[in-house]
Q: What sequence folds into this?
């Protein structure tokens, strides 16, 4: 029996909610708290019972070559497979395209959410499946897991119309048998179970539940979203407050003021500036004569003579303020 754990990460989406940053790269490579979202996701795998016995199966599409280059360069120790999804038709479709690599146990991870979880529980896991969940005040915009009195999952419901069940599925699944999942996806396609032209994984899992799958839920306390500019900044704040802060090093620099927490890459150049709180500055960035708070500056960004707040500045972007001539009459209000 195949015991190598397959980690399936669908990454073929366009990332439209993060534009303009995703015009030039996949959303999984946008950085938060000093490194790409994808790297934070893969950090979670370190808690697996046998983290060296895994294979990564990446479903790629838009700007696929960037994902491939990043994984092969930054994670050479992980055996990686890449599957091209040229015509995205949903989560189940993505997994089905990778079926040649899927034998034995697998995890499906959606890479625009970050979790704090302990995967060492899999060492003694007896259930045939796990859906990680988090109770939320309003579950109607999520998928939810419905459980019976015995605690086993009875159904996964996408975007429920009522609020009777608040266990939102966070995009993290364990399935003991890849083969059973692929068979369920084939049945899903035969039944044409789709929504707006997409095959959702929830429907395939429901077929497995119909067939007797013993799936339980595992609650998470921390569920971070990295899918929009607003939530990316929220996630940046949390990560800086919980382990990614290097303010102690940054304060050793001359002619800058640091308001923790912040992250500054060692190769970034900072002069005559105030940083923080909640600022991340990437490799090779250059900041001069500026005040920056609650913002992310990515690798190579250049920022001169400005005040920034709640901002995302992409790689090699240049932001600078030029001198202005203003002739303002009585009672004029000018915001610069």
A:
């Amino acid at each position: 029996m195949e015991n190598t754990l397959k980690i399936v990460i669908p990454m073929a989406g366009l990332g439209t909610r993060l534009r303009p940053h995703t015009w030039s790269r996949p959303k999984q490579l946008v950085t938060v708290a000093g490194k790409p979202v994808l790297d934070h996701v893969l950090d979670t795998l370190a808690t697996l019972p046998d983290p060296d016995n895994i294979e990564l199966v990446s479903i790629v599409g838009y700007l696929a070559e960037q994902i491939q280059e990043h994984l092969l360069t930054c994670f050479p120790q992980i055996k990686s497979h890449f599957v091209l999804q040229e015509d995205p038709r949903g989560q189940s479709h993505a997994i089905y395209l990778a079926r040649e690599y899927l034998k034995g146990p697998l995890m499906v991870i959606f890479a625009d959410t970050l979790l704090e979880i302990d995967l060492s529980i899999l060492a003694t896991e007896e259930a045939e499946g796990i859906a990680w969940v988090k109770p939320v005040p309003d579950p109607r915009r999520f998928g939810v897991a419905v459980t019976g009195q015995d605690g086993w999952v009875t159904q996964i419901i996408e975007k429920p119309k009522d609020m009777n069940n608040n266990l939102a599925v966070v995009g993290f699944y364990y399935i003991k048998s890849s083969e059973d999942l692929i068979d369920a996806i084939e049945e899903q396609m035969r039944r044409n179970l789709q929504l707006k032209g997409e095959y959702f994984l929830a429907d395939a899992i429901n077929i497995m539940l119909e067939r007797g799958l013993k799936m339980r839920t595992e609650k998470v306390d921390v569920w971070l979203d990295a899918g929009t500019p607003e939530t990316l900044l929220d996630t940046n704040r949390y990560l800086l407050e919980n382990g990614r802060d290097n303010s102690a090093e940054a304060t050793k620099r001359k002619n800058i003021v640091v308001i923790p927490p912040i992250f500054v890459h060692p190769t970034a150049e900072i002069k005559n500036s105030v940083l923080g709180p909640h600022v991340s500055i990437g490799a090779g960035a250059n900041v001069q004569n500026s005040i920056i708070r609650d913002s992310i500056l990515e690798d190579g960004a250049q920022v001169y003579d400005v005040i920034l707040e709640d901002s995302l500045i992409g790689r090699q972007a240049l932001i600078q303020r030029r001198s202005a001539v203003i002739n303002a009459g009585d009672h004029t209000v000018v915001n610069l």
